């Protein structure tokens, strides 16, 4: 479940998870106050593994900046120099991924332009893909938007065969 940065949504998601009687959960808390909700997991005897929660003593850190650096490097290795980074607005993960994206471009001599940042909430980026001006797309959130190919198919438009996709999660 994606809480979308909302503590209220996070609590609803935790309730749903607990009612589903799962054995374990990998949890990325929305904020430090989220820690108050851990008792629900304990009551249902659900094992919890926290990620990216520095306020929790036993959490794991996922370096989204480095992951996005590597994904961008792969797109560059395919010969793409015009790459878009599909981001989720107001997302910590997208912010970290965007840092890695920019760092990779800089280190490989590809100039960064603001137009490379593509908010997934806005459909305008489709036009750049269809015009072949962005043959490479990197997505910071697999679930933030359906696959660009699926979204274009809904509009009865094919994804250009010269387009490469990369994501923080393999698909």
What does this structure look like?
It is built from 6 helices and 7 strands; from the N terminus they run H-E-H-E-E-H-E-H-E-H-E-H-E. The two termini are 17 Å apart. It is an alpha/beta fold and 171 residues long.
Query: Helix and strand succession?
Result: HEHEEHEHEHEHE
Mean pLDDT: 80
- Physical arrangement of strands within the biggest beta sheet: 5-4-6-7
* Helical residues, percent: 25-40%
Total of DSSP H or I helical runs spanning 4+ residues: 6
Low-confidence blocks of residues: none
Beta-strand residue percentage: 15-25%
Described by strand count, sense and barrel closure, the largest sheet is: 4 strands, parallel
Cα radius of gyration in angstroms: 18 Å
According to DSSP, the number of beta strands is 7
What's the end-to-end separation, in Å? 17 Å
Helices and strands: which structural class?
Answer: alpha/beta
The rough form would be described as elongated
